[in-house]
Amino acid sequence: MNKTPLLEVSGLRKAFRSGAAEIVLFDNLSFQLQPGEMLALVGDSGAGKSTLLHVLGALDRPSQGTIQCAGMDVGTLAEEAAAEFRNREIGYVWQFHYLLPEFTALENAAMPLLMRGVKPAEAEKQAASWLGKVGLDQRAHHRSGELSGGEQQRVALARALITNPKLLLADEPTGDLDNRTADAVFELIARLHREHQLTSLIATHNLAFARRCHRVLRLHQGHVEEVTPESLLA
After folding, report:
1. Which of 60, 62, 70, 218 counts the most CB atoms within 10 A of its CB?
2. What is the pTM assigned to this prediction?
3. Does domain 37-63+88-228 have CATH number 3.20.20.150?
4. Phi, psi values for residue 57, rounded to 5°
């Protein structure tokens, strides 16, 4: 395995002002993610998992510390450069799919390529290919409201990966799904991770899913500790 980390976090801090008080969500976080790894991020609700993913993906800025991702100093990017970084280097899957209801599955999946100026015919060709990879080639022309929850999340996954991102960030990607559908979606993420040699960071409450990742970080009271996947059995 390549020993140069794809993601290197050092001394990361995120704090908010609330009146005269400072609320520290996390402090002095340091960890690395190697190319090809699937890392689970676990922790209680409100521990800061979503905020950490926002900071890592240049959707929010750290209060302190550095984030090196794909050779870039993420925390110092200006707004336009951060948007470019997100579009080219990061794939996002959230708990809610955030599909645009007026567009079809094909059009939703193609959106990141359209936003970077790819011609519609080429964007939709690639979107059709990705919908096939997530098992939705027969649902390409259905709008999001005509899809089940699991199908909507599959479209969201195709949309996240169509740009061939270096890093997949997934925030509770199965949290809104029933157990059977959630298991199928996680299996799909794991398969695409292997087949497309992704590097993935998945925040999840589902410890059964976390155990199937290569490594596990637990975010607790503002700090992270690495735990073995096997230790999550209890």
Report:
1. 62
2. 0.89
3. no
4. -95, 15
